[in-house]
Write a structure and sequence with these properties.
Length: 310
């Protein structure tokens, strides 16, 4: 029997969040609002940091770059999803699918490394305050940012090259709202065992490295803070980490659930919900999390608002 290679002919069909026609417009409205809030919130964070000289510190340098990456991250996925919600075809070309997959992974991994960089910043600030300016100097911060981007893009390139060598002949319907690795691998009629081993091993190394860095940093921070004699001192030290810990929990909780399971355990509905959490919800919440109880950010946002009014 002759098999048809959908990857080179007609591309793929993105099934989306729901196949119910009555839900398409409500979902479009919800995700359009979420996308606009995400872009506006993160742009305000970037502008507030750059407009206030008192926020020109390593922590806020990484936060402004995290906000920029969050905008890119959601832009890779949400606009195409919105178009498909109002479209009858919901098609994406094979090349378009690989491009989306590449930038999705690049932005997602850069997010992880930036969160690790922010954890290192908190570690140095709390555990080695007298050496903070020397250790977290502008040159080192820039190198950490460039390293995060480089590792993430190399990882994405390897994954996309592996995916480009697969054949897709059984079906061309991706049961997801974007081109993610697991849903696309499920469609392949090639032997994906070697690809899965490489993907799992390499992904474990790339994603686990920043996670272990965050874990080690906070273990050191906890040990140091517990040595502070006063309760007020302990609370002040921990309060500088609360926003970062919240974002780490939201991001890694859903990422670990989606990606660190065998392909046989893949669940369409559950994975869609978890993926929405870290691709749409977390980037939207980040500006609120970092500004809600942060006096420095609130001051920066007020200063930006006053400048706009003038």
């Amino acid at each position: 029997m002759e098999t048809k290679n959908y990857s080179s002919d007609s591309g793929f069909i993105l099934l989306g969040l729901s196949s119910n026609p009555q839900l398409q417009k409500p979902l479009f409205a919800i995700f359009l609002i979420m996308y606009l809030v995400t872009v506006l919130g993160n742009v305000l964070i970037i502008l507030a940091i750059h407009s206030d000289p008192r926020l020109h510190t390593p922590m806020y340098f990484f936060l402004s770059n995290l906000s920029f990456i969050d905008i890119c991250f959601t832009t890779v996925i949400v606009p195409k999803m919105l178009v498909n919600l109002l479209s009858e075809t919901k098609a994406i070309s094979f090349v378009g699918c690989l491009v989306q997959m590449y930038f999705f992974m690049a932005c997602g991994n850069t997010d992880s490394y930036l969160l690790a960089s922010m954890a290192i910043d908190r570690l140095v600030a709390i555990c080695h305050p007298f050496h903070y300016n020397r250790v977290m100097n502008p040159r080192r911060c820039l190198l950490m940012l460039l390293g995060s981007c480089t590792i993430s893009h190399l990882h994405s390139l390897l994954r996309v090259l592996l995916m480009s060598r697969l054949s897709f002949c059984a079906s061309h319907v991706i049961k997801h709202f974007f081109c993610d690795t697991q849903p696309v691998l499920k469609l392949s009629c090639s032997d994906t065992s070697s690809s899965q081993i490489v993907v799992m091993t390499e992904t474990l190394a790339v994603i686990a490295t920043p996670f272990l860095c965050i874990l080690f940093s906070y273990l050191r921070i906890i040990v140091t803070v517990l040595r502070i004699p006063s309760a007020a001192g302990k609370w002040k030290a921990f309060s500088t980490c609360s926003s970062h810990l919240t974002v780490v929990a939201l991001t890694y909780g859903s990422v670990i659930y989606v990606y660190f399971r065998p392909l046989s355990m893949y669940s369409v509905v559950k994975d869609r919900v978890a993926t929405v959490m870290y691709t749409v919800v977390t980037p939207m919440l980040n500006p609120f999390i970092y500004s809600l109880r942060n006096k420095d950010m609130n001051r920066g946002l007020k200063k930006l608002r006053n400048r706009i009014h003038l």
